Amino acid sequence: MSDRRRLLGQRGEQLAEGYLVNKGFRIVERNVRTKRGEMDLIALDGKCLVFIEVRTRRSQSFGTAGESITWKKKQKLRELALEYLQKSAQPIPSFRFDVIAIYTGASTQGEDFMKPVIEHYESAF
C-alpha cells in the first residue's frame, strides 16, 4: 500500500472517530489486528458494541465507499468480530456492524483536504 493511500486511510479513521465521539459513541479499540485481519474501530453505542469499517475515498469516481465492501470483506469482519466476542471477558448484550464512508475531496496536488463528507450506515450488514 502506498504511503499516500495509507495516510488517507488514517485520516479517514481519525475523522470517523471524531464523528462517532460527537454522536455519543465511546471508542473501545482502534485498529484491532489479528492473524485473520483488522477491524478499524470498535465502539459502544449505549450498551451495543459496534464494529465499524471505515472507507475513505477522494471521490466516488470508482463507486461509493460503501460499495467497496464486498461479500468476502463482510464475511471476514464477521469472523473477526466473533473472535473478538469469544475473547471478551464480559458479556455483550448486543452488537452490530456499521460502515462509515468518508469522501475527502482531496486535491491531486497534495494533501489539501476540503471539508469531508461523512456518511454513517448503522447496521450496514
Automatic annotation (TrEMBL):
GO terms for molecular function: nucleic acid binding. InterPro entries: Restrct_endonuc-II-like (IPR011335), tRNA_endonuc-like_dom_sf (IPR011856), UPF0102_YraN-like (IPR003509). Belongs to the UPF0102 family. This is UPF0102 protein BBR47_36060.
